[in-house]
Write a structure and sequence with these properties.
Layout: H1 6-13, H2 17-74, H3 77-105
Length: about 120
């Protein structure tokens, strides 16, 4: 219909201009709905990817915390004073790096909760 007069085209096809206009509107509405649905699918995939990443990093953090706990529980008082601050600082830095990585991957608007 682009470039042709609506009245001329309707006469050639044997339908009214209103019918042609209605078909065009239905076509455009369907295309817009399809594009919107695709956008939602992309958003859902990204949300799932980020949730998986959060789960992986949360598990890593939990394992590191457990390791800290075991290290602290297994040390004698003398060893604790000598090494624990250095180990604790190192582990804290690892946790901070992982948290920074995680936060850099979360969209500005946050992650929408799913039902």
């Amino acid at each position: 219909m682009r470039g042709e007069d609506l009245e001329t085209l309707s006469r050639e096809l044997g339908v009214t201009a209103v019918t042609l206009s209605g078909w065009r509107d239905q076509f455009l509405d369907g295309g817009a709905a399809n594009l919107k649905a695709r956008g939602a699918d992309v958003d859902n995939e990204e949300t799932q990817r980020l949730k998986s990443l959060v789960a992986d990093l949360s598990m890593s953090n939990e394992l590191l915390r457990e390791k800290i706990h075991r290290m602290e529980a297994g040390r004698s008082h003398d060893l604790w004073h000598a090494n624990s601050r250095k180990d604790t600082r190192r582990i804290r830095e690892e946790l901070k790096k992982e948290l920074s990585l995680l936060l850099s991957m979360v969209p500005a608007g946050g992650i929408e909760p799913t039902a």
